[in-house]
Write a structure and sequence with these properties.
Blueprint: E1 5-9, H1 13-25, E2 29-33, H2 36-45, E3 50-54, E4 56-57, E5 60-61, H3 62-68, E6 77-82, H4 87-95, E7 100-103, H5 108-138, H6 146-159, E8 165-168, H7 175-184, E9 193-197, H8 206-211, E10 212-213, E11 225-226, H9 228-231, E12 236-240, H10 247-259, E13 261-263, E14 270-272, E15 276-281, H11 285-290, H12 296-302, E16 305-308, H13 318-333, H14 343-351, H15 357-371, H16 446-460, H17 465-472, H18 476-488
Parallel strand pairs: 1-2, 1-3, 3-6, 6-7, 8-15, 8-16, 9-12, 12-15
Antiparallel strand pairs: 4-5, 10-11, 13-14
Helix pairs in contact: 6-7, 10-12, 13-15, 16-17
Length: about 500
């Protein structure tokens, strides 16, 4: 939500009037006061999104009201007002939680820039809050095995500190989730949480992403931009896949970790931040140090408190707990009634090595839910865990209602026109519940089964080829080739 209500704390009548007029022209609701006591009363009486605070006030320093803001449940974002000679005090205020500052005498452009940064920051906080809530509701740790219980204990212990943490583990184990849990349970949970995927940022842009840049510092830098560390000030930053950054960036990152200061690209002003650093990696960083690919001093700076996330194959019965949780989630999402897994399917889940860990399990369950039909337990064939050249081969599972075998002749009783439980005669073919039989009971060719699976999955993903390929477990190029063949045959493709 955008900023709406602003309070101005300044004893200078001209300053208050100037700010009031400027802010009201921009359609903000504005209240101005001239003393700390008046501001305290107003903040208890009403809720504001932003507060301008003068450093020097008749009844004390602006730092006093800045400290009081920490006790308010919905504190406004503080912006300091200072004269040219008070920059050391401004820096102290920033360390206490002030978001920005303006220098007297200020002009319209300066106020507009501060308001723009405040709006962006406010939106960022809302996104972080939503993300945290979603993680809390939908992605809590599931598992009762000893490694997971120990992991929870470690998280609870280290979360209450502000030390840097290095989270290691294989791909798909949930390292980001550990980072979110550390943030949610920390004393900084009401402050920003900034995530940076180091592996996804181009080499020539990562420094700008980390530290920001000044206008005109390079081609395309049309305005000043705050970096991720600056946005994370007074909060937490997660450096995902930290092992992928280049040696050049490693040097500059080391300085931030040591001194908590940096300069924007193209800038000369040193920016100081207070930020907790969490880092994740699937690499053996100590081996990378030995190989000369990662700085040793940076490694020990990051590795203040190491946390290793256990792979799924070492979590025992947690595999079934997770699988059932994912089944419930995706069944609701796709509006299906899936009662569970067959015993054979549960055995398959437990015996698989899960090289892709929780991420692989999640994708496997979603794929099987899409292939399943209402009212049927999922058989192991729907998991498509066995390697294939093009796409998973799904065999016909046992019918949901079995036909009793004929008794021995001496025990046989002739029952005229007996009807079994599902309403079909014993002499009639039982239609397959999974759609892989023709109406006459004969098995469909594998090519037809494959085609139906692909078309069904494309329909589910609304024609998204990449998403469909991931769910089907095939290469995107293979999927496109098959789609082109279907189109040549006159088949409609979503």
């Amino acid at each position: 939500m955008p900023l709406e209500k602003i309070i101005v704390l300044d004893d200078d009548l001209m300053i208050r009037k100037t700010l009031e007029d400027l802010l009201r022209k921009k359609r903000y609701s504005v209240k101005s006061v001239q003393t700390i006591q008046d501001a305290q009363k107003q903040l208890l009486k009403d809720t504001y999104d932003l507060i301008f605070i003068d450093l020097k006030l008749p009844d004390g320093s602006g730092m006093e009201i800045l400290r009081d803001l920490h006790e308010l449940p919905n504190a406004p974002m503080p912006i300091m007002i200072s004269g040219h000679g008070n920059m050391e005090d401004v820096i102290d205020c920033m360390r206490l939680g002030a978001r920005d500052y303006v220098i007297k005498p200020f002009d319209t452009e300066q106020i507009e820039l501060v308001l723009k940064r405040a709006e962006n920051y406010s939106q960022l906080l809302k996104v972080n809050q939503f993300y945290s809530e979603q993680q809390n509701n939908n992605a809590d740790f599931i598992g009762e095995c000893e490694p997971m219980q120990n992991l929870r204990r470690v998280i609870r212990r280290v979360a209450k500190t502000e030390c840097d943490v290095l989270i290691t583990g294989e791909n798909g184990t949930g390292k980001e989730l550990v980072g979110m849990e550390l943030y949610r349970n920390s004393l900084l949970s009401n402050q920003p949480y900034i995530r940076v995927n180091c592996a996804a940022i181009p080499e020539n842009l990562i420094e700008s992403e980390f530290f920001g840049h000044e206008k005109g510092s390079f081609t395309g830098a049309v305005s000043r931009r705050e970096g991720r560390f600056e946005l994370a000030n007074n909060g937490t930053i997660l450096l995902d896949e930290i092992g992928e950054i280049s040696p050049q960036v490693q040097v500059k990152l080391l300085r931030v970790l040591q001194e908590r200061e940096f300069e924007r690209v193209g800038g000369a002003t040193t920016i100081r931040v207070s930020v907790r650093v969490l880092a994740t990696t699937n690499r053996d960083l100590l081996q990378a140090v030995k190989d000369g690919e990662f700085r040793e001093d940076l490694y020990y700076r990051l590795n203040v408190f190491p946390i290793q996330v256990p792979p799924l194959r070492k979590r025992g019965e947690d595999i079934l707990l997770l699988a059932k949780a994912f089944l419930s989630k995706f069944a609701r999402q796709h509006n299906l009634n899936i009662p569970g897994f067959t015993p054979e399917a549960e055995t398959t889940l437990m015996e698989h090595r899960w090289p892709g860990n929780v991420r692989e399990l999640q994708n496997t369950i979603e794929r099987s839910v899409i292939l399943a039909h209402n009212g049927q337990a999922i058989p192991p064939e729907y998991f498509a865990l066995t390697p294939s050249v093009s796409m998973p081969i799904v065999l016909d599972p046992e019918p949901p209602t079995s036909i009793p075998s004929a008794p021995k002749a001496k025990e046989q009783e002739v029952l005229p026109e007996e009807v079994i439980e599902d309403g079909t005669s014993p002499t009639e073919p039982v239609a397959s519940a999974n759609g892989y039989h023709h109406e006459d009971g004969t098995l469909k060719p594998l090519e037809m089964i494959e085609q139906e699976q692909i078309l069904r999955t494309l329909e589910h993903t609304n024609g998204n080829r990449s998403a469909a390929a991931e769910l089907l477990g095939i290469n995107i190029r293979t999927l496109r080739n098959k789609i082109n063949k279907y189109k040549e045959d006159g088949i409609s493709v979503p």
